[in-house]
Amino acid sequence: MAVTDFDQWQARVDAVWQDRALSADERIARIDALATELGDDHPVSLFERAGARDSAGRESEAEPLYRRAIERGLDDRRRARATIQLASTLRNLGETDDALALLDAERQRSGAELRDELAAFTALTLASAGDPVRAVSVALTALAPHLTFYTRSVMGYAAELASD
Question: What is the model's pTM?
Fold first, then answer.
């Protein structure tokens, strides 16, 4: 079946994600069924299939799907999400250097979406890589602009941690 209304299709995918009664295997099966409506090589279909496997703890199955989705071309927001999710998958697989490189490249893209989310996963990856001080610096730098008070102080402390 061909998708004629992408927004309606996405709403059905979102409903699967929101259904907490589904097991991981049921979620994968439903996402896969919806993904076939777009086609096996459609970047959004690949992204959703990867996410279903990733959330089920099947990182090794998710990784190539994320990579293909990114290669096939996603809009800026989905590309940022796919990069974050791929980096998280790589972190869970112990490939922290690759994860950090992906996150850094996405952060440096012009107009990169989801900057705070990128920072959060960079901090997690740095902690997993054995660099907790730098992880705290990244997290504080992302958090500081959202503070009611002490933004300048927290930014200063974050910079100090990064320089040590």
Answer: 0.90
